[in-house]
Specification:
By secondary structure, the protein is mostly helical. Helix content is 53%, strand content 2%.
Amino acid sequence: MIPKAAEVRLTPEDRAVLEARVRAATTEQRDVFRARIILLAAEGRSTRSIARTVGTMPRTVSLWRGRFSREGLSGLADKPRPGSVPKYDAETGKYITQSLPCPFLDGNLCSIYEVRPAVCADYPHLHRNFRSRLWQVIDNAETCPIVYNVVERLKKTLGFVES
């Protein structure tokens, strides 16, 4: 026997939030997907009908219907997943990049390369515009010995300082 689908009732505020998520171009696609499921469920559509419409399995629709009916909008957020706890968070990353020299530098190599913080993994921030990158490199030369050495070599190569 097929279990009864969790009933989804939306307050006007919840509906407005979900519709805004679906419309916004900057909303992550997983959030749009979940919002569409809940909006369709609120219309009284069946789990299988919603699954066909959004292109997923009925059990996925049931998962999000159930979580929303139990927890509301907060139920649509990702839950913590199993696995090792990250060693470095955003605050730690800021500390690492602002300390002089980098405490994880072993000679000219990063000793924690595989688990380095996002701020280090993102370096040299090439996704930003040129002016931002240039100033970022100059700023990073003060804290990262590798960047400092590269800048110093460039200054010699380009004739900005005498050898």
